[in-house]
Design brief:
This protein has 12 helices and 10 strands. The protein is rod-shaped and about 130 Å long. The chain has helices at residues 3-20, 24-35, 40-46, 56-92, 111-125, 139-142, 175-183, 227-242, 295-300, 317-325, 332-335, 338-341; strands at residues 129-130, 136-138, 162-164, 167-169, 191-200, 212-222, 248-255, 258-267, 284-293, 309-315. It binds phenylalanine.
């Protein structure tokens, strides 16, 4: 076979192999087989030395043409294969944007947190700081520094989860009164603080009791702070949570850490004072405990009762949420049943 014939044969075989290959890998094999260093064209070119000087240029030219033809066919096929792969991928991964999406449930603040957030907004607006404190508390702060020495009968009012004899789950947010007074620099102005958080009592859970519930403590200590300031502050709370026209009344009560102590009622938001089943016909709703901070408590926190004084209050967001939304069983707040909780969603 002449060299020309060999080249023509090689070209025909190569083009057929290219045509038949259906993957990049087999294309590469074709390239190696025909165009590679040890490939067929190279070996044909090696035979050129047997040709006469007159024949060589023509044979060389033909060899180059065959090589170029194979190379360009390889390139073309490679591009075609890539397009096929891409098209298959696109077809496989196509997203139908008209299909309905699966809805994503969006979280919301818990209804009690919503009430706490509303109170935080109100009090921060009146210049209070917010201090949350710790749910695991020292017995000294939960009781002793609040004028409740060890044998005090009022300790029975708050049955307690003890962790050790001196560490407990706080039964109230009032320990933050003592902690904040100890830290406060009164030369820089009065202490105005609220402390929202969870508290714990060894109660048997029922419709109105939960062993874990919430309180928001408030305290203002400075010079010339009076009970009128307390009443005005509580009125702001009542009106902010329940409506503008509501009033507050104070009734004498007892807490070891306040003197005098009061129970604050707010006008029934439902009947506006006429009497209904929510307020049990009285026109008033018991809302919170409060009073003027006891001189002993001030002293134990290093505050001079001759110079400084003020009020404290403790309110229950759980109770407020129950009243506001007509929830009859406090346990609903803690069961985390989304059917219950989503009723209080603020948006969407
Ligand atoms: N800590 C009291 C309670 O849990 C409420 C309270 C707070 C009363 C502050 C007076 C002042 O019952």
């Amino acid at each position: 076979m002449s060299l020309q014939e060999q080249l023509a044969e090689i070209k025909a075989q190569a083009l057929a192999a290219i045509e038949a290959s259906d993957a990049e890998k087999s294309l590469n094999d074709v390239r190696v087989k025909f165009l590679g260093k040890k490939g067929e064209i190279t070996s044909v070119l090696r035979g050129m030395k047997d040709l006469s000087a007159a024949e060589r240029p023509q044979a060389g030219k033909l060899a180059n043409e065959v090589r170029d033809a194979i190379q360009s066919q390889l390139d073309e096929k490679k591009a075609a294969l890539a397009t096929t792969v891409l098209n298959a991928k696109l077809a496989h991964e196509t997203v139908d944007v008209t299909l309905p999406g699966s809805p994503v449930m969006q979280g919301q603040p818990h209804v009690i947190q919503q009430i706490i957030d509303q109170l935080i907004d109100l009090f921060v607006g009146m210049g209070y700081e917010v201090a949350t404190g710790s749910e695991v508390e020292e017995e000294v702060y939960n009781f002793e520094k609040l004028n409740l020495p060890k044998d005090h009968p009022a300790r029975d009012m708050q049955d307690t989860f003890y962790i050790t004899p001196s560490i407990l789950m706080r039964t109230q947010t009032s320990p933050m009164q003592a902690r904040m007074m100890e830290q406060h620099d009164f030369s820089k102005g009065p202490l105005k603080m609220i402390s929202p958080g969870k508290v714990y009592r060894r109660d048997t859970d029922d419709a109105t009791h939960s062993h874990q519930f919430h309180q928001v403590e408030g305290i203002v200590i400075g010079e010339h702070i009076t009970m009128a300031d307390l009443k005005g502050t509580l009125k702001a709370v009542a009106q902010n949570l329940f409506g503008d026209s509501l009033d507050v009344r104070l009734r004498p009560s007892y807490f070891p850490f306040t003197e005098p102590s009061v129970e604050a009622d707010i006008t029934c938001f439902n009947c506006h004072g006429d009497g209904c089943n929510i307020c049990k016909g009285t026109g008033w709703i018991e809302a919170l405990g409060a009073g003027m901070v006891h001189p002993n408590v001030l002293k134990m926190s290093g505050v001079d009762p001759e110079v400084y004084g003020g009020f404290a209050f403790g309110l229950g967001p759980d109770r407020f949420a129950m009243l506001k939304y007509g929830v009859e069983d406090i346990r609903n707040f803690y069961l985390n049943d989304v059917r219950f909780l989503t009723q209080f969603n603020q948006k969407g």
